[in-house]
Design a protein that fits this description.
4-stranded mixed β-sheet; single chain; 23 strands; 3 domains; 20 helices; alpha+beta
Length: 669
């Protein structure tokens, strides 16, 4: 935008001032000792002095590695509460810190540039042994070794399946109920061949037993390590033996960073066939709040950020020309994430158990203002419970466009706003945006989406009245007992600045429309607990339920079952159906779709009917594709995925990060 927002100007000014201060009093570059291995098996670490990573040959990082050999990325989850838990059978393991991305291997991986699967540990795509698509033969590559020198074989696959079934109900990784409900039987044929039978026709065998998007439901275990553990439910696996090209070198016991080192025998790893990963070391580190991160990024202290705000990116690019966004034009950021931002609601808790109340919240959300205020207009709207991408749009969005235009609520009201995108362009123009950066013609809807729900607080007030809620003298909705309904909206704290800002803007919109809303910021650990615990959830900004990466919607929605619903105020952790869908018809449709050939029109049509049911009852208020604001710094490393070279999604927290690592290049600095 040619006319900067006040926040952008403030950030840039602050960065300039702080950069001058830091330049004047920056400490000399210091080499900190790497963490040492304690006799107890845990990893201890010292608090290294901060380094001023502004260039120079021979420069060392704060964790004692050569800067020129170390790729440093901002963590997805900020600070982590369980830095020593590397057990992939545990839902609370260090999920976004390298274990999945660097250390594990999967039967089949996903080429995120094309949406096509390819063999990783498997030697080829599975052989289908019957006409019903329930029996499969899996051949494994030979010559792959765990990092401790033990060969990977079919015994590891069989042991993992045995462990999943034996630990069902006790082990907490969400892939366990999914796989044990999917696999009927299995057997070892030889050291490099297994056969697996599924409970139903499985046309998604490769993406269920391998990778669908950011990781896999099936985390293959090192049998020779895990079989010696007495209680796998409490085992932390603090010194993980790995299949991937990296091993854990050290980590911060306070959960701020994790350091990985490339295996000397990387050729024998699960990805050795792809080539040598360029960085010898990879450091996942939390650089703190947005202000601190922006300053560190400008000073080249790390290479890839995760969800930096548009204002922070603008400030960084202003000060450092080597900082780049995904695209040089609007909407500037990658929009191809499998997930989208939406509002998760406890649909079992009154008054949210009433669809009219949920619809009232949707119609009280001014998404144009939310996207403008929180994202400077750099977003794409998506009303369906999935992102609107080049893959999902022709399969689901375009076929449902007329239905959305014709759709009516029970009172006859038509909530669809087909002019959303055009109105956003006008809003940006009125705000002073550079016309050359704004979409025109068909690109308007490609940029801002096919449409969204109307912002109509008056209709919302009518819907609330049907549920017995009326506005009091203070302008906020009160129930039949006269008590104001206070809506808690849980949002991330600074560990996800973009979603945090979206959350504050939603709360502002709801408050203006008469819903007294408290936006409560939480750290990553509490965020997950709220998401998965009925007693803690009222509403929250979230992305988990809406992760549909390609036409296989069943992959994400298979867990939407009646069995996965918990009592309304239960403290028990749920293992699926995060949306709290309660409709029996939808349950049956998802089961039916799970046995369909996914290449048929009938499969897509069933998905469209499921979407209609979800929208009619507004089980989940989907809002926008995740605007993956991932700036990179080309000082030490270059050739990151960009709009004009999108060989992979640019995410450092997906398992596809391994493709980035063999593609980026050192600059020689």
């Amino acid at each position: 935008m040619s006319r900067k927002s006040p926040l952008t100007s403030w950030v840039i000014a602050l960065v300039v001032i702080m950069s001058m201060i830091l330049s004047a009093c920056a400490p000399s570059v210091a080499t900190a000792p790497a963490a040492t291995q304690a006799s107890s098996g845990s990893t201890e670490a010292t608090n290294p002095p901060a380094s001023d990573a502004t260039g120079g040959s021979g420069e060392m990082t704060e964790v004692g590695t050569p800067r020129s050999e170390t790729l440093i990325v901002q963590t997805f989850d900020g600070k982590v509460d369980v830095p020593d838990n590397f057990n992939p059978l545990n839902a609370s393991y260090v999920l976004w810190r390298g274990l999945r991305e660097l250390a594990w291997g999967y039967l089949w991986e996903m080429d995120t540039a094309t949406g096509q699967s390819y063999p990783e540990l498997a030697a080829e795509m599975p052989k289908i042994l019957d006409d019903q698509h329930t029996q499969f033969q899996v051949s494994l590559k030979k010559g792959i070794y765990w990092s401790d020198g033990v060969e990977f074989t079919a015994d590891d696959v069989i042991y993992t399946l045995d462990t999943y079934f034996a630990g069902k109900g006790k082990l907490t990784y969400w892939g366990i109920p999914a796989i044990t409900g999917y696999v009927k039987s299995y057997k070892k044929i030889d050291n490099y061949t297994v056969e697996i039978e599924t409970t139903h026709p499985a046309y998604d065998f490769v993406t269920t037993m391998g990778v669908y998007t950011w990781g896999s439901l099936f985390n293959i275990l090192p049998k020779h390590v895990f079989e010696k553990v007495e209680d796998l439910s409490t085992f932390k696996n603090p010194n993980p033996v790995t299949l991937g090209a990296y091993t854990l070198k050290s980590f911060d016991p306070n959960g701020q960073w994790h350091l990985w080192q490339r295996r000397d025998d990387w050729q024998r790893s699960s990805t050795g066939w792809m080539g040598q990963p360029a960085p010898k070391y990879i450091l996942y580190k939390n650089f703190g709040d947005e202000q601190t991160r922006t300053l560190a990024f400008i000073k080249n202290q790390y290479d890839v950020d995760t969800f930096m705000s548009p204002d922070g990116i603008a400030a960084g690019k202003k000060q450092n020309p080597l900082i780049k966004s995904f695209s040089p034009v609007m909407p500037y950021h990658d929009m191809g994430d499998a997930c989208s931002y939406g509002i998760l609601m406890n649909n079992q808790k009154a008054p949210l158990d009433n669809p009219n109340v949920r619809w009232a919240l949707a119609l009280s959300l001014d998404l144009k203002s939310v996207g403008f205020n929180s994202m400077n207009g750099e977003f794409r709207a998506s009303a369906l419970p999935m992102p609107d991408t080049q893959i999902t749009h022709p399969a689901f969005f375009a076929p449902l466009e007329q239905w959305l235009k014709d759709f009516k609520l029970e009172d006859g009201y038509q909530p669809w706003d087909p002019n959303f995108a055009a109105d956003m362009v006008k809003k940006m123009t009125d705000a002073g945006a550079d016309p050359s950066t704004l979409p025109t013609g068909d690109n308007v809807t490609k940029s801002y989406g096919m449409g969204w729900w109307k912002y109509d607080p008056a209709e919302a007030e009518k819907l609330m009245a049907t549920a017995g809620y009326k506005k009091g003298a203070d302008g906020f909705y009160a129930g039949p007992d006269g008590k104001t309904w206070e809506v808690e909206l849980v949002i991330p704290s600074d560990w996800n600045k973009v979603m945090q800002r979206v959350g504050f803007s939603i709360a502002d919109s709801w408050n203006k429309a008469g819903f007294k809303t408290n936006a409560r910021q939480v750290d990553n650990g509490e965020f997950g607990k709220v998401q998965n615990t009925n007693s803690l959830l009222t509403t929250m900004v979230n992305w988990t339920p809406s992760c549909v990466f390609n036409t296989n919607y069943v992959q994400n929605w298979r867990s939407i079952t009646k069995d996965n619903l918990k009592p309304v105020d239960s403290n028990e952790e749920i293992v699926g159906n995060n949306m709290r869908v309660t409709d029996e018809k939808i349950f049956a449709q998802i089961v039916e779709a799970g046995s369909m050939d996914q290449s048929t029109p009938e499969f897509l049509q069933t998905g469209q009917e499921i979407i209609k049911g979800m929208l009619s009852q507004m089980f989940y208020i989907n809002m926008m594709n995740i605007p993956t604001t991932i700036p990179t710094n080309d000082t030490y490393w270059t050739n990151f995925p960009k709009a004009d070279n999108a060989y992979s999604v640019p995410y450092t927290w997906w398992s596809s990060f391994k493709k980035i690592l063999v593609t980026i290049k050192p600059t020689g600095k």
